[in-house]
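Q: Got a minute? One more chain.
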Amino acid sequence: MSNEEQNGLGTYEGRDVVRTAIAIRNAGDGLSEALGIAPQTFGIGDRVFVLLECEVKGVDYEPVKNKDVLTRKHILKAGAATMVDEAEAKPKIDYQRDLIQQAKDSVAGQGRLDPQPAGEEPSLHEFVGDSEADCAVCSEALGHPSHVHG
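A: Always. Here it is, folded:
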């Protein structure tokens, strides 16, 4: 089975692409504009939730450490940004954390039950980062291509 058939990421310059990652540039600009219109103050240690609109501006391919494979890194430029309520954001963040932990547990041989209780899953998982959690457990559960651990 080819790399393309296996994970949908293909090859670049003859090397398999096995991971995806993102880098977000200008992330503070849109939020600074929004806070200029409706100022808010935050204390050290406060947890805030930010929603960013981004445009894909480029793609880089980077070697995976000690492997002859690549990570496809999407370069995003942040545009508009806004603060969002914890009640709206936290269920999605918590769901993502559960998926990452489930993937880590799977790698460590400690399977877990589905982290989402009965009911509808949050609409999430547009991003698969560059970490040990980039794996088939997380990806296949949501219909995304598989990723290989480096």
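A: Residues 138 and 144 are 8 Å apart (CA to CA).
Q: Perfect, thanks.
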